[in-house]
Every structure is written in structure tokens, then in C-alpha cells.
TrEMBL record:
<dbReference type="InterPro" id="IPR050216">
    <property type="entry name" value="LRR_domain-containing"/>
</dbReference>
<dbReference type="Pfam" id="PF23598">
    <property type="entry name" value="LRR_14"/>
</dbReference>
<feature type="domain" description="Disease resistance R13L4/SHOC-2-like LRR">
    <location>
        <begin position="132"/>
        <end position="214"/>
    </location>
</feature>
<keyword id="KW-0677">Repeat</keyword>
<dbReference type="Pfam" id="PF13855">
    <property type="entry name" value="LRR_8"/>
</dbReference>
<dbReference type="InterPro" id="IPR003591">
    <property type="entry name" value="Leu-rich_rpt_typical-subtyp"/>
</dbReference>
<dbReference type="InterPro" id="IPR055414">
    <property type="entry name" value="LRR_R13L4/SHOC2-like"/>
</dbReference>
<protein>
    <submittedName>
        <fullName>Leucine-rich repeat domain-containing protein</fullName>
    </submittedName>
</protein>
<dbReference type="InterPro" id="IPR001611">
    <property type="entry name" value="Leu-rich_rpt"/>
</dbReference>
<keyword id="KW-0433">Leucine-rich repeat</keyword>
<dbReference type="InterPro" id="IPR032675">
    <property type="entry name" value="LRR_dom_sf"/>
</dbReference>
Length: 305
């Protein structure tokens, strides 16, 4: 009898605490929109915080209290720096900081191990902290329109990265480790100052779209032919005089854009690409004879000279 009573009391205790917990969660669920002040006074309830376009010049250090926060939208403000303890938000999945005036990012950024999407475009950032490589859940990185001249070698540790936009910066080169980003599908490196690419670029076997337009490339690595998933390749606005024969191995390639280079011919190997439907080669140095030769070799593709 006594053991049964103890069991009943135990069940009642658990049930009461469950009701209490559910009530707390229910109260939190009733409110989905918070001001910054409200969020800091109800830190245990805040999962999403939208601070977009509020003319904020800083975020308070107490932001670190929002331990349940999963999504933070702080874009279109006037932020120049972030509080160091922002990286204590270990539940954070989405972080929007674009269209601010950020000069740098916290050196401990890599502590955000659950972060999946980071948007930092249209700031005045000059570099990414080396700890960026510790963002082992990061899938989407949008960092266009900053002042990066390089990426840290640790960038290649972003094993889950699928979407990478570092366009409209001042990149002179890519770290060799860039070739280790085996899950990359979409890469935008256009409008930089790249003069060369990693020799092992072909390791990016899942890559579907690659935009390298408006750089200073004079040649492509032969390994680019190993990017077997590539569908769209944009190389306009470079200084290319020839293309590697290995482009003929890109069996899934559908669109090839090469305008504004110094090309006089296309590799014959392109004739093997049955999926290739569009080739744009305007503003190059093709002779009439070279044009006819290309059109004859690629009857299934539409060429634009």
C-alpha cells in the first residue's frame, strides 16, 4: 500500500511539473512579437526577434541572455560592432546582419555551432574571423558587398556549406582549403579581383552553379572538368584566351556564359555535352570562320556571338 502511495505521489509530482512547464510554454507561445526591451525582460520566451530597420547603433551586452533565441533579424540598422556575448546564443539558427555598417565580427563567432544561415552582406567588413571555420552547421553564407581581400584558411572547414555568396568584394585569391567544401552547390564569386583559382577546384563534386564573372582570370584549372554536377558556369568579364579541354567532361552543363573575354575558339570537347543548350560568347575575338566552326560542332546549343 505504501509503495503504491509513493508511486501515485511520484506520478502526481511529475504531472504537476509537466502542467507547469506546459503552461509556461503556452504563455510564451501566446506572444510571437517582441520589442528589444520586452525580449530582454522575457528572455526565456524569445525564440525569434525582429529588430529590422530600427536605427539601432548597438546591441546591448544583455543580448546574451536570450538563450532560446533561434532567429535574430537585425538588418537595416546602423550597427558597427556586435557585443562579444552575442556568440553565447547557442540556440541561434538564423542571423541577419546585412545592410549595417559593421567593421568586424566577434572573434568567437565560431561558438554559434547551430547557426545555419548567416547574412552579412552590405557592410564594411574587411575579413572573417578564423573561428568562422567552427560554424559546423552553417549551410548558407551571404557576404556580398563587403571589403574582403581574402578568406581565412579555416573557411574550408565549413563542411555543411551549400550556398556561398562572396561576390562584390576585393578578393585576390581563394584559400586552398576552399576545395574541401564538398557540399557546395551554389557559389557566387563574381565582381572580385581573382587572378587564379585553387588547382583542386574539381573536388567540388556537388557544385551546380558557379559565377566567376568580372574577375581577372587568365586561365582555369583543368580540374574544373571534375565538377560533375555543374549546370551553370559564368565566366564573363575575365581575361581568358583559352579554355581547358576538360570542360567537355561537364556532362550536366546547360548554360555557359563567356562574354567579354579574349577567346578565339571553343574547345572541341564541348561537342560531347548533350545537355548544353546556351553558350554566350559576345565581345570576344572570334573570326567568322571560328564562329561557323563552333556552330557546326555544337548543333544542339544556341550560340550568341
Amino acid at each position: 500500500m505504501r509503495s503504491r502511495l509513493i508511486s501515485l505521489l511520484t506520478i502526481l509530482f511529475v504531472a504537476l511539473h509537466g502542467v507547469q512547464g506546459n503552461t509556461c510554454l503556452a504563455q510564451c507561445a501566446l506572444k510571437t512579437s517582441f520589442s528589444l526591451t520586452q525580449a530582454l525582460t522575457q528572455s526565456g520566451c524569445v525564440i525569434e526577434l525582429n529588430l529590422r530597420g530600427q536605427n539601432l547603433e548597438l546591441l546591448p551586452p544583455s543580448m546574451g541572455q536570450l538563450r532560446r533565441l533561434r532567429m535574430l533579424f537585425a538588418h537595416e540598422n546602423h550597427l558597427r560592432y556586435l557585443p562579444e556575448n552575442l556568440t553565447q546564443l547557442d540556440s541561434l539558427r538564423v542571423l541577419f546582419l546585412n545592410k549595417n555598417s559593421l567593421l568586424d565580427l566577434p572573434p568567437t563567432l565560431g561558438k554559434l555551432h547551430r547557426l545555419r544561415q548567416l547574412q552579412i552582406e552590405q557592410n564594411v567588413l574587411r575579413e572573417l574571423p578564423p573561428s568562422v571555420g567552427e560554424l559546423d552547421s552553417l549551410h548558407y553564407l551571404m557576404s556580398a558587398y563587403n571589403n574582403f581581400t581574402s578568406l581565412p584558411e579555416q573557411f574550408g572547414q565549413l563542411a555543411e556549406l551549400e550556398y556561398c555568396d562572396v561576390s562584390h568584394n576585393q578578393l585576390l585569391f581563394l584559400p586552398a582549403s576552399f576545395s574541401r567544401l564538398r557540399n557546395l552547390r551554389y557559389v557566387y564569386l563574381n565582381d572580385n579581383k581573382l587572378q587564379s583559382l585553387p588547382t583542386q577546384l574539381g573536388s567540388l563534386s556537388k557544385l551546380e552553379e558557379l559565377n566567376l564573372s568580372n574577375n581577372q582570370l587568365e586561365q582555369l584549372p583543368a580540374s574544373i572538368g571534375d565538377c560533375q554536377s555543374l549546370k551553370v558556369l559564368i565566366l564573363s568579364g575575365n581575361q581568358l584566351k583559352t579554355l581547358p579541354k576538360s570542360l567537355g567532361n561537364l556532362s550536366k552543363l546547360e548554360i555557359l556564359i563567356l562574354n567579354d573575354n579574349q577567346l578565339t575558339t571553343l574547345p572541341r570537347s564541348l561537342s560531347k555535352l548533350k545537355q548544353l543548350k546556351t553558350i554566350i560568347v559576345k565581345q570576344n575575338a572570334f573570326t567568322p570562320a571560328a564562329r561557323r566552326q563552333a556552330e557546326t560542332a555544337l548543333p544542339g546549343a544556341k550560340l550568341y556571338f
